[in-house]
TrEMBL record:
Keywords: ATP-binding, Cell membrane, Membrane, Nucleotide-binding, Transmembrane, Transmembrane helix, Transport. This is Amino acid/amide ABC transporter membrane protein 2 (HAAT family) /amino acid/amide ABC transporter ATP-binding protein 1 (HAAT family). The chain crosses the membrane at residues 7-25, 31-52, 83-105, 112-131, 160-184, 205-227, 259-276, 282-305. Pfam families: ABC_tran (PF00005), BCA_ABC_TP_C (PF12399), BPD_transp_2 (PF02653). GO terms for molecular function: ATP binding; ATP hydrolysis activity; branched-chain amino acid transmembrane transporter activity. InterPro entries: AAA+_ATPase (IPR003593), ABC_AA/LPS_Transport (IPR051120), ABC_transp_permease (IPR001851), ABC_transporter-like_ATP-bd (IPR003439), BCA_ABC_TP_C (IPR032823), LivM-like (IPR043428), P-loop_NTPase (IPR027417).
Length: 605
Protein backbone atom coordinates (compact mmCIF):
# COMPACT_ATOMS: atom_id res chain seq x y z
CA UNK A 1 0.00 0.00 0.00
CA UNK A 2 1.41 3.43 -0.92
CA UNK A 3 0.51 6.55 1.02
CA UNK A 4 -0.62 9.71 -0.75
CA UNK A 5 0.11 13.32 0.28
CA UNK A 6 -2.20 13.81 3.30
CA UNK A 7 -1.48 10.26 4.56
CA UNK A 8 2.27 10.87 4.38
CA UNK A 9 1.91 14.22 6.11
CA UNK A 10 -0.15 12.66 8.90
CA UNK A 11 2.39 9.87 9.36
CA UNK A 12 5.26 12.37 9.39
CA UNK A 13 3.52 14.56 12.02
CA UNK A 14 2.77 11.48 14.12
CA UNK A 15 6.42 10.40 13.96
CA UNK A 16 7.59 13.94 14.82
CA UNK A 17 5.09 14.05 17.73
CA UNK A 18 6.35 10.70 19.02
CA UNK A 19 9.98 11.92 18.92
CA UNK A 20 9.08 15.12 20.81
CA UNK A 21 7.11 13.17 23.44
CA UNK A 22 10.00 10.73 23.83
CA UNK A 23 12.64 13.45 24.16
CA UNK A 24 10.63 15.85 26.36
CA UNK A 25 11.66 14.45 29.80
CA UNK A 26 15.33 14.95 28.90
CA UNK A 27 14.70 18.68 28.75
CA UNK A 28 12.73 18.95 32.01
CA UNK A 29 13.67 19.24 35.66
CA UNK A 30 12.01 17.10 38.34
CA UNK A 31 9.32 19.65 39.20
CA UNK A 32 8.54 20.36 35.55
CA UNK A 33 8.04 16.67 34.78
CA UNK A 34 5.64 16.46 37.73
CA UNK A 35 3.64 19.36 36.28
CA UNK A 36 3.55 17.66 32.87
CA UNK A 37 2.42 14.36 34.46
CA UNK A 38 -0.47 16.16 36.16
CA UNK A 39 -1.31 18.03 32.93
CA UNK A 40 -1.64 14.73 31.04
CA UNK A 41 -4.12 13.52 33.66
CA UNK A 42 -6.14 16.71 33.17
CA UNK A 43 -6.00 16.13 29.42
CA UNK A 44 -7.54 12.66 29.87
CA UNK A 45 -10.33 14.18 31.96
CA UNK A 46 -10.86 16.87 29.33
CA UNK A 47 -11.22 14.29 26.53
CA UNK A 48 -14.02 12.64 28.52
CA UNK A 49 -15.69 15.98 29.19
CA UNK A 50 -15.28 16.96 25.53
CA UNK A 51 -17.00 13.76 24.43
CA UNK A 52 -20.03 14.20 26.66
CA UNK A 53 -20.35 18.00 26.42
CA UNK A 54 -18.84 19.00 23.10
CA UNK A 55 -19.70 15.98 20.98
CA UNK A 56 -22.89 14.74 22.65
CA UNK A 57 -24.05 18.16 23.92
CA UNK A 58 -24.86 17.06 27.49
CA UNK A 59 -24.01 19.30 30.43
CA UNK A 60 -21.83 17.28 32.79
CA UNK A 61 -20.55 18.77 36.02
CA UNK A 62 -19.79 15.35 37.48
CA UNK A 63 -16.59 14.65 35.53
CA UNK A 64 -14.50 15.53 38.58
CA UNK A 65 -16.56 13.03 40.62
CA UNK A 66 -15.82 10.20 38.14
CA UNK A 67 -12.16 11.09 38.59
CA UNK A 68 -12.61 11.09 42.37
CA UNK A 69 -14.52 7.80 42.50
CA UNK A 70 -11.75 6.01 40.66
CA UNK A 71 -8.90 7.68 42.63
CA UNK A 72 -10.55 6.92 45.95
CA UNK A 73 -11.47 3.38 44.92
CA UNK A 74 -7.84 2.71 43.97
CA UNK A 75 -6.69 4.24 47.25
CA UNK A 76 -9.17 2.30 49.39
CA UNK A 77 -8.68 -1.02 47.64
CA UNK A 78 -4.88 -0.86 47.83
CA UNK A 79 -4.45 0.56 51.32
CA UNK A 80 -7.39 -1.00 53.14
CA UNK A 81 -8.41 -4.11 51.23
CA UNK A 82 -4.91 -5.27 50.35
CA UNK A 83 -5.40 -5.47 46.57
CA UNK A 84 -2.45 -5.08 44.22
CA UNK A 85 -2.36 -1.74 42.37
CA UNK A 86 -3.49 -2.92 38.95
CA UNK A 87 -6.32 -5.14 40.23
CA UNK A 88 -7.48 -2.20 42.34
CA UNK A 89 -7.15 0.04 39.28
CA UNK A 90 -9.31 -2.29 37.20
CA UNK A 91 -11.97 -2.42 39.93
CA UNK A 92 -11.73 1.38 40.26
CA UNK A 93 -12.41 1.72 36.53
CA UNK A 94 -15.50 -0.44 37.07
CA UNK A 95 -16.57 1.85 39.92
CA UNK A 96 -16.14 4.93 37.71
CA UNK A 97 -18.19 3.33 34.92
CA UNK A 98 -20.88 2.49 37.46
CA UNK A 99 -20.84 6.11 38.61
CA UNK A 100 -21.21 7.14 34.94
CA UNK A 101 -24.21 4.87 34.63
CA UNK A 102 -25.67 6.32 37.83
CA UNK A 103 -25.17 9.92 36.68
CA UNK A 104 -26.49 8.93 33.26
CA UNK A 105 -29.74 7.57 34.75
CA UNK A 106 -31.32 11.00 35.23
CA UNK A 107 -30.26 11.70 31.63
CA UNK A 108 -32.92 9.17 30.61
CA UNK A 109 -35.51 11.66 31.77
CA UNK A 110 -34.11 15.18 32.19
CA UNK A 111 -32.01 17.23 29.82
CA UNK A 112 -30.01 20.41 29.23
CA UNK A 113 -29.63 22.72 32.24
CA UNK A 114 -31.65 20.41 34.51
CA UNK A 115 -29.07 17.74 33.79
CA UNK A 116 -26.37 20.26 34.71
CA UNK A 117 -27.98 20.77 38.11
CA UNK A 118 -28.42 17.03 38.68
CA UNK A 119 -24.79 16.29 37.78
CA UNK A 120 -23.57 19.14 40.00
CA UNK A 121 -25.68 17.72 42.82
CA UNK A 122 -24.14 14.29 42.38
CA UNK A 123 -20.61 15.75 42.31
CA UNK A 124 -21.33 17.63 45.55
CA UNK A 125 -22.80 14.49 47.13
CA UNK A 126 -19.59 12.61 46.32
CA UNK A 127 -17.46 15.39 47.80
CA UNK A 128 -19.61 15.42 50.91
CA UNK A 129 -19.25 11.69 51.24
CA UNK A 130 -15.46 11.65 51.10
CA UNK A 131 -15.15 14.57 53.51
CA UNK A 132 -17.48 13.01 56.08
CA UNK A 133 -16.62 9.34 55.85
CA UNK A 134 -13.91 8.16 58.27
CA UNK A 135 -13.03 5.26 55.94
CA UNK A 136 -12.14 7.82 53.22
CA UNK A 137 -9.90 9.70 55.65
CA UNK A 138 -12.06 12.84 55.86
CA UNK A 139 -10.28 16.09 54.98
CA UNK A 140 -6.88 14.37 55.36
CA UNK A 141 -7.57 11.90 52.59
CA UNK A 142 -5.74 8.61 52.11
CA UNK A 143 -1.98 8.29 51.81
CA UNK A 144 0.49 5.44 51.30
CA UNK A 145 -0.96 4.20 48.01
CA UNK A 146 1.66 1.74 46.71
CA UNK A 147 3.83 2.43 43.66
CA UNK A 148 2.31 0.59 40.68
CA UNK A 149 4.55 -2.35 39.76
CA UNK A 150 5.43 -2.71 36.06
CA UNK A 151 7.83 -5.46 34.98
CA UNK A 152 10.60 -4.10 37.17
CA UNK A 153 10.25 -0.50 35.85
CA UNK A 154 10.55 1.88 38.77
CA UNK A 155 7.40 3.97 38.47
CA UNK A 156 8.34 5.91 41.57
CA UNK A 157 10.37 7.97 39.14
CA UNK A 158 8.08 10.60 37.67
CA UNK A 159 10.18 10.49 34.50
CA UNK A 160 9.33 6.84 33.92
CA UNK A 161 5.74 7.42 35.02
CA UNK A 162 5.54 10.02 32.25
CA UNK A 163 6.11 7.32 29.61
CA UNK A 164 3.38 5.12 31.09
CA UNK A 165 1.02 8.10 31.01
CA UNK A 166 1.92 8.98 27.43
CA UNK A 167 1.13 5.44 26.24
CA UNK A 168 -2.24 5.35 28.08
CA UNK A 169 -3.04 8.87 26.90
CA UNK A 170 -2.20 8.13 23.25
CA UNK A 171 -4.40 5.01 23.27
CA UNK A 172 -7.24 6.87 25.02
CA UNK A 173 -7.06 9.80 22.60
CA UNK A 174 -6.98 7.44 19.60
CA UNK A 175 -10.05 5.66 20.97
CA UNK A 176 -11.89 8.94 21.50
CA UNK A 177 -11.07 10.11 17.97
CA UNK A 178 -12.21 6.73 16.64
CA UNK A 179 -15.55 6.98 18.47
CA UNK A 180 -16.15 10.53 17.18
CA UNK A 181 -15.64 9.40 13.58
CA UNK A 182 -17.89 6.33 13.83
CA UNK A 183 -21.67 6.37 13.35
CA UNK A 184 -21.90 6.51 17.16
CA UNK A 185 -20.03 9.83 17.22
CA UNK A 186 -22.15 11.12 14.36
CA UNK A 187 -25.32 10.30 16.25
CA UNK A 188 -23.98 12.04 19.33
CA UNK A 189 -23.28 15.17 17.27
CA UNK A 190 -26.76 14.99 15.76
CA UNK A 191 -28.22 14.76 19.28
CA UNK A 192 -26.15 17.82 20.27
CA UNK A 193 -27.33 19.86 17.25
CA UNK A 194 -31.03 18.98 17.47
CA UNK A 195 -32.25 16.20 19.79
CA UNK A 196 -35.82 16.49 18.50
CA UNK A 197 -34.87 15.98 14.86
CA UNK A 198 -32.39 13.26 15.83
CA UNK A 199 -35.13 11.38 17.68
CA UNK A 200 -37.43 11.71 14.69
CA UNK A 201 -34.92 9.89 12.48
CA UNK A 202 -34.47 7.04 14.92
CA UNK A 203 -31.70 8.13 17.30
CA UNK A 204 -32.48 6.61 20.70
CA UNK A 205 -31.84 9.84 22.57
CA UNK A 206 -32.16 8.78 26.24
CA UNK A 207 -29.84 5.78 25.84
CA UNK A 208 -27.41 7.77 23.75
CA UNK A 209 -27.23 10.41 26.49
CA UNK A 210 -26.49 7.69 28.99
CA UNK A 211 -23.81 6.22 26.70
CA UNK A 212 -22.15 9.64 26.54
CA UNK A 213 -21.97 9.80 30.34
CA UNK A 214 -20.51 6.31 30.53
CA UNK A 215 -17.87 7.28 27.95
CA UNK A 216 -17.00 10.35 30.01
CA UNK A 217 -16.73 8.24 33.15
CA UNK A 218 -14.36 5.87 31.34
CA UNK A 219 -11.91 8.76 30.88
CA UNK A 220 -12.54 9.96 34.43
CA UNK A 221 -11.76 6.43 35.63
CA UNK A 222 -8.51 6.19 33.68
CA UNK A 223 -7.39 9.58 34.94
CA UNK A 224 -8.26 8.59 38.53
CA UNK A 225 -6.17 5.41 38.49
CA UNK A 226 -3.20 7.21 36.93
CA UNK A 227 -3.50 10.02 39.47
CA UNK A 228 -3.56 7.62 42.42
CA UNK A 229 -0.43 5.89 41.07
CA UNK A 230 1.36 9.19 40.42
CA UNK A 231 0.64 11.16 43.61
CA UNK A 232 0.00 8.09 45.81
CA UNK A 233 -2.18 10.27 48.01
CA UNK A 234 -5.79 11.38 47.53
CA UNK A 235 -7.64 14.18 49.33
CA UNK A 236 -11.00 15.91 48.78
CA UNK A 237 -9.53 19.23 47.58
CA UNK A 238 -8.39 17.62 44.30
CA UNK A 239 -12.01 16.78 43.46
CA UNK A 240 -13.48 20.14 44.43
CA UNK A 241 -16.05 22.05 42.42
CA UNK A 242 -13.34 24.70 41.79
CA UNK A 243 -11.35 22.04 39.93
CA UNK A 244 -14.50 20.98 38.05
CA UNK A 245 -14.78 24.56 36.80
CA UNK A 246 -11.10 24.62 35.92
CA UNK A 247 -11.74 21.50 33.84
CA UNK A 248 -14.72 23.21 32.21
CA UNK A 249 -12.53 26.21 31.42
CA UNK A 250 -9.97 23.90 29.77
CA UNK A 251 -12.60 22.38 27.53
CA UNK A 252 -14.29 25.68 26.68
CA UNK A 253 -11.03 27.50 25.91
CA UNK A 254 -9.54 24.61 23.92
CA UNK A 255 -12.71 23.89 21.97
CA UNK A 256 -15.27 21.44 23.25
CA UNK A 257 -16.23 20.08 19.83
CA UNK A 258 -12.71 18.88 19.10
CA UNK A 259 -10.89 16.33 21.23
CA UNK A 260 -7.57 17.82 20.12
CA UNK A 261 -8.86 21.20 21.28
CA UNK A 262 -9.76 19.76 24.69
CA UNK A 263 -6.26 18.32 25.02
CA UNK A 264 -4.61 21.62 24.07
CA UNK A 265 -6.90 23.54 26.46
CA UNK A 266 -6.19 21.12 29.31
CA UNK A 267 -2.43 21.04 28.91
CA UNK A 268 -2.26 24.81 28.29
CA UNK A 269 -4.32 25.78 31.34
CA UNK A 270 -2.66 23.16 33.57
CA UNK A 271 0.74 24.67 32.71
CA UNK A 272 -0.48 28.26 33.10
CA UNK A 273 -1.98 27.33 36.46
CA UNK A 274 1.45 26.21 37.66
CA UNK A 275 3.15 29.38 36.47
CA UNK A 276 0.53 31.46 38.24
CA UNK A 277 0.54 29.40 41.42
CA UNK A 278 1.73 32.35 43.50
CA UNK A 279 -1.13 34.50 42.27
CA UNK A 280 -3.87 31.91 42.60
CA UNK A 281 -6.61 34.42 43.53
CA UNK A 282 -5.92 36.49 40.42
CA UNK A 283 -5.51 33.34 38.36
CA UNK A 284 -9.06 32.20 39.23
CA UNK A 285 -10.33 35.61 38.18
CA UNK A 286 -8.25 35.38 35.01
CA UNK A 287 -9.75 32.00 34.07
CA UNK A 288 -13.21 33.46 34.59
CA UNK A 289 -12.48 36.41 32.30
CA UNK A 290 -10.92 34.16 29.63
CA UNK A 291 -13.90 31.78 29.73
CA UNK A 292 -16.40 34.65 29.38
CA UNK A 293 -14.42 36.14 26.48
CA UNK A 294 -14.26 32.75 24.77
CA UNK A 295 -17.96 32.06 25.23
CA UNK A 296 -18.82 35.47 23.75
CA UNK A 297 -16.29 35.73 20.92
CA UNK A 298 -15.32 32.12 20.12
CA UNK A 299 -18.01 29.82 21.52
CA UNK A 300 -16.41 26.79 19.91
CA UNK A 301 -13.03 27.54 21.52
CA UNK A 302 -9.58 27.80 19.94
CA UNK A 303 -10.02 24.58 17.97
CA UNK A 304 -13.33 25.82 16.64
CA UNK A 305 -11.88 29.00 15.08
CA UNK A 306 -10.61 27.37 11.85
CA UNK A 307 -13.96 25.55 11.52
CA UNK A 308 -15.89 28.80 11.94
CA UNK A 309 -13.74 30.48 9.33
CA UNK A 310 -14.41 27.55 7.02
CA UNK A 311 -18.16 27.91 7.64
CA UNK A 312 -17.98 31.64 6.88
CA UNK A 313 -16.17 30.84 3.63
CA UNK A 314 -18.83 28.21 2.86
CA UNK A 315 -21.49 30.84 3.42
CA UNK A 316 -19.85 33.22 0.98
CA UNK A 317 -19.29 30.49 -1.56
CA UNK A 318 -22.71 28.85 -1.19
CA UNK A 319 -24.53 29.16 -4.41
CA UNK A 320 -21.51 30.66 -6.22
CA UNK A 321 -20.42 27.54 -8.02
CA UNK A 322 -22.68 24.87 -6.56
CA UNK A 323 -26.02 24.19 -8.18
CA UNK A 324 -29.08 22.25 -7.19
CA UNK A 325 -29.29 19.30 -9.57
CA UNK A 326 -32.40 17.66 -10.98
CA UNK A 327 -34.21 15.10 -8.89
CA UNK A 328 -33.82 11.58 -10.30
CA UNK A 329 -37.13 9.80 -9.71
CA UNK A 330 -37.04 6.55 -7.74
CA UNK A 331 -37.51 3.48 -9.93
CA UNK A 332 -41.27 2.84 -9.80
CA UNK A 333 -42.26 -0.23 -7.85
CA UNK A 334 -44.54 -2.70 -9.67
CA UNK A 335 -48.15 -2.29 -8.56
CA UNK A 336 -48.31 -5.68 -6.82
CA UNK A 337 -45.08 -5.05 -4.90
CA UNK A 338 -46.20 -1.81 -3.31
CA UNK A 339 -46.40 -2.38 0.44
CA UNK A 340 -47.40 1.10 1.57
CA UNK A 341 -49.30 1.04 4.87
CA UNK A 342 -52.53 2.73 5.82
CA UNK A 343 -52.59 5.37 8.56
CA UNK A 344 -55.62 5.76 10.78
CA UNK A 345 -56.18 8.67 13.15
CA UNK A 346 -58.83 7.53 15.65
CA UNK A 347 -60.51 10.12 17.87
CA UNK A 348 -57.27 11.94 18.65
CA UNK A 349 -57.47 14.83 21.12
CA UNK A 350 -54.59 16.93 22.32
CA UNK A 351 -55.07 19.55 25.00
CA UNK A 352 -52.45 21.98 26.31
CA UNK A 353 -53.81 23.05 29.65
CA UNK A 354 -56.71 25.25 28.54
CA UNK A 355 -56.04 25.04 24.78
CA UNK A 356 -57.85 22.26 22.92
CA UNK A 357 -55.47 22.02 19.96
CA UNK A 358 -57.12 18.83 18.65
CA UNK A 359 -60.64 17.60 19.39
CA UNK A 360 -61.54 13.99 18.60
CA UNK A 361 -59.98 13.99 15.15
CA UNK A 362 -60.64 10.87 13.05
CA UNK A 363 -59.66 10.18 9.47
CA UNK A 364 -57.91 7.49 7.47
CA UNK A 365 -55.11 7.76 4.93
CA UNK A 366 -55.26 5.01 2.33
CA UNK A 367 -52.13 2.93 1.62
CA UNK A 368 -49.95 4.66 -0.95
CA UNK A 369 -52.02 7.87 -0.99
CA UNK A 370 -50.86 11.46 -0.94
CA UNK A 371 -53.15 12.96 1.68
CA UNK A 372 -53.40 16.68 2.34
CA UNK A 373 -54.05 18.33 5.71
CA UNK A 374 -55.01 21.98 5.41
CA UNK A 375 -56.53 24.62 7.63
CA UNK A 376 -56.02 28.18 8.83
CA UNK A 377 -53.12 29.10 11.13
CA UNK A 378 -53.46 27.57 14.58
CA UNK A 379 -56.00 24.97 13.46
CA UNK A 380 -53.92 22.09 14.89
CA UNK A 381 -52.11 20.68 11.84
CA UNK A 382 -48.60 20.63 13.28
CA UNK A 383 -49.93 19.36 16.60
CA UNK A 384 -51.46 16.45 14.68
CA UNK A 385 -48.08 15.65 13.07
CA UNK A 386 -46.40 15.92 16.46
CA UNK A 387 -48.85 13.39 17.86
CA UNK A 388 -48.46 10.99 14.90
CA UNK A 389 -44.66 11.18 15.05
CA UNK A 390 -44.50 10.69 18.82
CA UNK A 391 -43.27 14.17 19.83
CA UNK A 392 -46.49 14.70 21.75
CA UNK A 393 -48.53 12.12 23.66
CA UNK A 394 -52.19 12.40 22.69
CA UNK A 395 -54.61 13.35 25.48
CA UNK A 396 -56.98 10.73 24.06
CA UNK A 397 -57.36 8.58 20.97
CA UNK A 398 -55.10 6.35 18.95
CA UNK A 399 -52.90 6.30 15.86
CA UNK A 400 -52.85 3.06 13.88
CA UNK A 401 -50.47 1.95 11.12
CA UNK A 402 -51.84 -0.93 9.07
CA UNK A 403 -54.35 -1.56 11.85
CA UNK A 404 -51.69 -1.75 14.60
CA UNK A 405 -51.85 0.81 17.42
CA UNK A 406 -48.60 2.80 17.44
CA UNK A 407 -49.58 5.77 19.60
CA UNK A 408 -47.73 5.84 22.91
CA UNK A 409 -44.43 4.95 21.26
CA UNK A 410 -41.52 7.42 21.35
CA UNK A 411 -40.45 9.27 18.22
CA UNK A 412 -37.36 7.08 17.72
CA UNK A 413 -39.47 3.93 18.08
CA UNK A 414 -41.89 5.30 15.49
CA UNK A 415 -38.99 6.07 13.17
CA UNK A 416 -37.94 2.43 13.40
CA UNK A 417 -41.56 1.46 12.69
CA UNK A 418 -41.30 3.43 9.44
CA UNK A 419 -42.68 6.90 10.18
CA UNK A 420 -40.52 9.83 9.03
CA UNK A 421 -41.24 13.54 9.01
CA UNK A 422 -39.96 16.95 8.08
CA UNK A 423 -40.44 20.08 10.18
CA UNK A 424 -42.21 23.34 9.45
CA UNK A 425 -39.22 25.31 10.82
CA UNK A 426 -36.39 23.32 9.23
CA UNK A 427 -34.49 21.25 11.77
CA UNK A 428 -31.26 20.19 10.10
CA UNK A 429 -28.13 19.38 12.10
CA UNK A 430 -26.41 22.75 11.74
CA UNK A 431 -22.84 21.82 12.68
CA UNK A 432 -22.75 18.74 10.48
CA UNK A 433 -22.30 18.59 6.71
CA UNK A 434 -25.20 17.76 4.41
CA UNK A 435 -23.71 14.29 3.85
CA UNK A 436 -23.48 13.71 7.60
CA UNK A 437 -27.11 14.80 8.01
CA UNK A 438 -28.06 12.03 5.59
CA UNK A 439 -25.66 9.51 7.16
CA UNK A 440 -27.26 9.81 10.60
CA UNK A 441 -30.62 8.85 9.13
CA UNK A 442 -29.20 6.06 6.96
CA UNK A 443 -27.66 4.24 9.90
CA UNK A 444 -30.46 2.11 11.31
CA UNK A 445 -28.42 0.11 13.84
CA UNK A 446 -29.90 0.09 17.31
CA UNK A 447 -28.02 1.40 20.31
CA UNK A 448 -27.66 -2.09 21.82
CA UNK A 449 -24.95 -2.74 19.21
CA UNK A 450 -22.68 0.08 20.39
CA UNK A 451 -20.34 -2.39 22.11
CA UNK A 452 -18.87 -2.79 18.61
CA UNK A 453 -17.36 0.64 18.91
CA UNK A 454 -16.08 -0.10 22.40
CA UNK A 455 -14.27 -3.11 20.97
CA UNK A 456 -12.68 -0.94 18.33
CA UNK A 457 -13.89 -3.26 15.60
CA UNK A 458 -12.27 -2.78 12.20
CA UNK A 459 -15.60 -3.83 10.56
CA UNK A 460 -16.93 -0.43 11.66
CA UNK A 461 -14.96 1.28 8.87
CA UNK A 462 -16.27 -1.05 6.18
CA UNK A 463 -19.84 -0.42 7.28
CA UNK A 464 -19.18 3.28 7.29
CA UNK A 465 -17.78 3.17 3.75
CA UNK A 466 -20.97 1.37 2.61
CA UNK A 467 -23.12 3.98 4.36
CA UNK A 468 -21.17 6.79 2.68
CA UNK A 469 -21.68 5.22 -0.75
CA UNK A 470 -25.43 5.03 -0.05
CA UNK A 471 -25.48 8.61 1.22
CA UNK A 472 -23.75 9.82 -1.95
CA UNK A 473 -26.25 7.90 -4.12
CA UNK A 474 -29.13 9.53 -2.24
CA UNK A 475 -27.55 12.99 -2.56
CA UNK A 476 -27.23 12.42 -6.31
CA UNK A 477 -30.87 11.34 -6.52
CA UNK A 478 -31.96 14.55 -4.82
CA UNK A 479 -29.58 16.72 -6.88
CA UNK A 480 -27.62 17.69 -3.76
CA UNK A 481 -24.15 16.37 -4.64
CA UNK A 482 -22.63 19.87 -4.88
CA UNK A 483 -23.61 20.57 -1.27
CA UNK A 484 -22.44 17.29 0.28
CA UNK A 485 -19.59 18.84 2.25
CA UNK A 486 -21.31 22.11 3.17
CA UNK A 487 -23.07 22.84 6.45
CA UNK A 488 -26.77 23.37 5.72
CA UNK A 489 -27.15 26.69 7.56
CA UNK A 490 -25.33 28.49 4.73
CA UNK A 491 -27.72 27.23 2.03
CA UNK A 492 -30.86 28.84 0.59
CA UNK A 493 -34.20 27.85 2.06
CA UNK A 494 -35.34 25.72 -0.89
CA UNK A 495 -32.21 23.60 -0.77
CA UNK A 496 -32.54 23.10 2.97
CA UNK A 497 -36.11 21.92 2.49
CA UNK A 498 -34.93 19.40 -0.08
CA UNK A 499 -32.17 18.18 2.27
CA UNK A 500 -34.77 17.61 4.97
CA UNK A 501 -36.85 15.47 2.62
CA UNK A 502 -33.75 13.54 1.53
CA UNK A 503 -32.83 12.99 5.19
CA UNK A 504 -36.33 11.73 5.98
CA UNK A 505 -36.14 9.37 2.99
CA UNK A 506 -32.73 8.11 4.15
CA UNK A 507 -34.49 6.47 7.08
CA UNK A 508 -36.45 4.37 4.53
CA UNK A 509 -39.89 5.25 5.83
CA UNK A 510 -43.21 3.64 4.93
CA UNK A 511 -45.09 6.77 5.98
CA UNK A 512 -43.76 10.25 5.29
CA UNK A 513 -45.17 13.35 7.01
CA UNK A 514 -44.28 16.62 5.25
CA UNK A 515 -44.94 19.79 7.25
CA UNK A 516 -45.29 22.74 4.86
CA UNK A 517 -42.67 21.50 2.39
CA UNK A 518 -43.49 24.26 -0.13
CA UNK A 519 -43.12 27.16 2.32
CA UNK A 520 -40.60 29.67 0.99
CA UNK A 521 -40.16 27.91 -2.37
CA UNK A 522 -40.50 29.64 -5.75
CA UNK A 523 -42.80 28.38 -8.52
CA UNK A 524 -40.23 26.14 -10.21
CA UNK A 525 -39.14 24.70 -6.86
CA UNK A 526 -42.78 23.90 -6.02
CA UNK A 527 -43.15 22.09 -9.38
CA UNK A 528 -40.02 20.03 -8.62
CA UNK A 529 -41.34 19.33 -5.13
CA UNK A 530 -44.57 17.88 -6.60
CA UNK A 531 -42.46 15.61 -8.79
CA UNK A 532 -40.42 14.47 -5.76
CA UNK A 533 -43.50 13.75 -3.64
CA UNK A 534 -45.16 11.76 -6.46
CA UNK A 535 -42.01 9.71 -6.97
CA UNK A 536 -41.80 8.97 -3.23
CA UNK A 537 -45.46 7.83 -3.30
CA UNK A 538 -44.79 5.65 -6.37
CA UNK A 539 -42.01 3.99 -4.42
CA UNK A 540 -44.57 2.65 -2.00
CA UNK A 541 -44.63 5.32 0.70
CA UNK A 542 -47.85 6.74 2.15
CA UNK A 543 -47.49 10.54 2.23
CA UNK A 544 -49.34 13.05 4.41
CA UNK A 545 -48.67 16.69 3.62
CA UNK A 546 -49.56 19.87 5.50
CA UNK A 547 -49.57 22.89 3.19
CA UNK A 548 -50.86 26.41 2.92
CA UNK A 549 -50.13 26.46 -0.82
CA UNK A 550 -53.60 25.41 -2.01
CA UNK A 551 -52.57 24.98 -5.64
CA UNK A 552 -49.93 22.48 -4.54
CA UNK A 553 -52.36 20.54 -2.34
CA UNK A 554 -55.17 20.54 -4.86
CA UNK A 555 -53.03 19.22 -7.71
CA UNK A 556 -51.17 16.64 -5.65
CA UNK A 557 -53.52 15.09 -3.10
CA UNK A 558 -56.12 12.43 -3.74
CA UNK A 559 -57.87 13.33 -0.49
CA UNK A 560 -57.77 16.33 1.78
CA UNK A 561 -58.70 16.77 5.46
CA UNK A 562 -59.56 20.30 6.50
CA UNK A 563 -59.04 21.36 10.13
CA UNK A 564 -60.35 24.47 11.85
CA UNK A 565 -59.94 25.17 15.57
CA UNK A 566 -58.82 21.62 16.23
CA UNK A 567 -61.82 19.97 14.54
CA UNK A 568 -62.32 18.38 11.13
CA UNK A 569 -64.67 20.51 9.05
CA UNK A 570 -64.28 18.56 5.80
CA UNK A 571 -62.67 15.35 4.58
CA UNK A 572 -62.84 14.13 1.01
CA UNK A 573 -61.51 14.59 -2.50
CA UNK A 574 -60.32 18.08 -3.35
CA UNK A 575 -63.48 18.53 -5.45
CA UNK A 576 -65.71 17.62 -2.49
CA UNK A 577 -63.73 19.70 -0.03
CA UNK A 578 -63.73 22.90 -2.06
CA UNK A 579 -67.49 22.60 -2.40
CA UNK A 580 -68.07 22.33 1.37
CA UNK A 581 -69.68 25.55 2.71
CA UNK A 582 -67.86 25.25 6.06
CA UNK A 583 -64.52 25.22 4.25
CA UNK A 584 -65.42 28.20 2.11
CA UNK A 585 -66.49 30.03 5.23
CA UNK A 586 -63.63 29.05 7.56
CA UNK A 587 -60.77 28.89 5.17
CA UNK A 588 -61.26 29.76 1.55
CA UNK A 589 -63.19 32.85 2.49
CA UNK A 590 -59.97 34.06 4.07
CA UNK A 591 -58.76 36.77 1.71
CA UNK A 592 -55.13 35.66 1.68
CA UNK A 593 -56.10 32.08 0.90
CA UNK A 594 -58.67 32.91 -1.74
CA UNK A 595 -55.87 34.29 -3.88
CA UNK A 596 -54.37 30.78 -4.19
CA UNK A 597 -55.26 28.95 -7.43
CA UNK A 598 -57.91 26.31 -6.76
CA UNK A 599 -57.40 23.76 -9.52
CA UNK A 600 -58.41 20.12 -9.08
CA UNK A 601 -55.76 17.42 -8.96
CA UNK A 602 -55.01 15.78 -12.28
CA UNK A 603 -55.44 12.31 -10.69
CA UNK A 604 -59.08 12.94 -9.84
CA UNK A 605 -60.15 15.10 -12.72
N1 LIG B 1 -46.58 23.10 22.90
C1 LIG B 1 -47.70 23.83 22.92
N2 LIG B 1 -48.13 24.37 24.08
C2 LIG B 1 -49.27 25.10 24.13
N3 LIG B 1 -50.05 25.32 23.07
C3 LIG B 1 -49.70 24.81 21.90
C4 LIG B 1 -48.50 24.03 21.76
N4 LIG B 1 -48.39 23.63 20.45
C5 LIG B 1 -49.46 24.13 19.82
N5 LIG B 1 -50.24 24.83 20.67
C6 LIG B 1 -51.49 25.53 20.35
O1 LIG B 1 -52.28 24.61 19.64
C7 LIG B 1 -52.98 25.27 18.61
C8 LIG B 1 -52.68 24.60 17.28
O2 LIG B 1 -51.35 24.89 16.91
P1 LIG B 1 -50.62 24.22 15.65
O3 LIG B 1 -49.22 24.71 15.63
O4 LIG B 1 -50.85 22.78 15.67
O5 LIG B 1 -51.44 24.88 14.45
P2 LIG B 1 -51.15 24.82 12.90
O6 LIG B 1 -52.43 24.52 12.24
O7 LIG B 1 -50.02 23.93 12.62
O8 LIG B 1 -50.74 26.33 12.63
P3 LIG B 1 -49.71 26.92 11.52
O9 LIG B 1 -50.39 26.77 10.21
O10 LIG B 1 -49.57 28.34 11.94
O11 LIG B 1 -48.47 26.15 11.66
C9 LIG B 1 -52.55 26.73 18.64
O12 LIG B 1 -53.51 27.44 19.36
C10 LIG B 1 -51.26 26.70 19.40
O13 LIG B 1 -51.05 27.89 20.10
Amino acid sequence: MTLRGPGKLRLASLAAGAVVLYALPYALGSYAIHVVDVAIIFALLAIGLGLVMGIAGQVNLAQIAFFGVSSYATALLTTQAGYGFWVAGLLAMGAALLAGLLVGLPALRVQSHYLGIVTLGLALAFLNWIVNTPMAGGADGISNIPVPPLFGVDLESEYLYYYLEVVVFALALAFGLFVVRTPLGRRMRAMRDDPLAAGAIGVEIPYLRMTAFVLASFYGGLAGVLYAGLIRYVAPETFSIANMFLLLAMVIVGGRQSLWGCVVGAIGLALIREWLVEFSTYAQLGYGVVVVLMVVFAPTGLAGIPRRLEQMRDRRRAGARAALGDFEPYPAVAEGDVRAPSLEIREISKHFRGVKALNEISFTVAPGAIHGVVGPNGSGKTTLFNVISGLYKATAGQVLVDGQIVSGATSYQLSHLGIARTFQNLRLFGDMTVRENILVALDRTRIRWIWRYALWQPGVWKRDRDLRARADALLTRFGLTDYADTTPGSLPYGIQRRIEIARAMASEPRILLLDEPAAGLNGEEVRQLSEIVRSIRDRGVTVVVIEHNMGFVMTLCARVTVLASGRIIADGTPAEVVATPAVIEAYLGDESMSQEPMTLPTEVQ
